[in-house]
Amino acid sequence: MVKVPESLPARMYLLAYDLRRGRMPYNGGRLGYVLRGAALAELYLDGRLVEERRGPRPGTPGEDPYGLVEQIAASRPRSWHYWVRKDSRAMVRRVREELAADGWIRVRRHRVLGVFPAHRVEVKDPRVVKTLWGGASSALRGRPIAHVNSYDAAAVALAAAGELNTVLPGPERRRHKRRITELSARTGPAAGAVRRVVRADQAAGGG
């Protein structure tokens, strides 16, 4: 059995990788929203966040690997989509650095046009991405909703919400719309918040 990362944000980063082209097609923007949503969903699924007045509040004490519970506890009540958007680009860097440090990916720094700093990401073992995709595919097309692994359900919900075409192209999202809605309900409020933020950016001309 191929080992995969334990954290949901790390899984979503690898799942977004384009194996066919051998590159990460997303640098910030919607990937950042998906990763923040994944961190929120993980905390919600583990009971460390609960919903109160349509926003997250601290729940059962436990690990807080990205400091989100601490941020939320120190803030006035805010919506889920506020927390999806906040520090989203920094979240991409954080998850990428963790995956590199743990040996899942190789990151090469270079400059676009010799000026703008950029990163070229290479997944060390493509089987990891294929395993994650298999779990998401099974959640989308296979067993009854109640028997789907919660992280696989979250992977589908977040990928659809973030419109990650490497995972779920538009035709697939439309074809499985009802199933995605059911999987999103298993995941909690974070996926819906990601969808709202992505669509708000699109309406504002942000792609």
TrEMBL record:
InterPro entries: GPP34-like, GPP34-like_sf. It holds the Pfam family GPP34. The keyword Membrane applies. Gene3D superfamilies: yeast vps74-n-term truncation variant domain like (1.10.3630.10). Its main location: Golgi. The keyword Isomerase does not apply. Transmembrane segments: none annotated. It is a peripheral membrane protein. Keywords: Golgi apparatus, Lipid-binding, Membrane. This is GPP34 family phosphoprotein. It comes from the Bacteria. It is found in: Golgi apparatus membrane.
